[in-house]
Amino acid sequence: TRSAKDLAAHLSAMGLAFAPEDIHTASQAALGYLRANRPDVRYLFVLGTPSLCAEVEEAGIKVVDGMSGRPPEAVLVGLDPGLTYERLCLAAHWIRKCGWFLGIHAGRSYPGEGGVLLVDCGAINECLAYAAGFAQYRPVMAGKPDPLLLRRILEQQQLGREEVLVVGDDL
């Protein structure tokens, strides 16, 4: 899960000029969901990249380790290439304790180097839902392909549906 700033730099290296404010990410949608629907959440346990954790902190929400200090009020699940079994178990524990969690997106996998199948955020969400109690612990999905992301972009940019083209990234 890359920030809009990271994606803009990546696209620039490919010869495509986009400002970070022209890029709308699933992580931005998740943070927008929290602001609009759960403004009480101030502490999150995050499975995700350092870039995602920095975005959460920049939004004024504290990222906690789930082992010491303040307990999380929710779990945010993004792509986490460094995910360990211990952190996966902690996430399942806090999902059950908090009663809900937020998924960045529902992507199951993506192609890696040499055609290796890499596990994506959606597969991690399913694993956690199953471990925490499946039926009662389904993730709230705030990013692709959820309509929340698209509605947020349309509202922010003051655009109609017919004026927008959505392209998946998997960059």
**Proportion of helical residues:** 25-40%
The overall strand count is 7
Strand order of the largest sheet: 2-1-3-4-7
**What are the segments in which pLDDT stays under 50 over at least 5 consecutive residues?**
none
Describe the largest sheet: 5 strands, parallel
Radius of gyration: 16 Å
The DSSP helix count reads 6
**Mean pLDDT over all positions:** 88
Q: Separation of termini?
A: 10 Å
Q: Can you walk me through this structure?
A:
The chain has a 5-stranded parallel beta sheet with strand order 2-1-3-4-7, sandwiched between helices. The model has no long low-confidence stretch (mean pLDDT about 90). The chain is α/β, with parallel strands linked by helices and about 170 residues long. The termini are close together.
Strands, helices and their partners?
Elements: H1 4-13, H2 26-37, E1 43-47, H3 50-58, E2 62-63, E3 74-77, H4 85-98, E4 101-103, E5 109-111, E6 117-119, H5 121-132, E7 140-141, H6 147-157
Parallel strand pairs: 1-2, 1-3, 3-4, 4-7
Antiparallel strand pairs: 5-6
Helix pairs in contact: 4-5
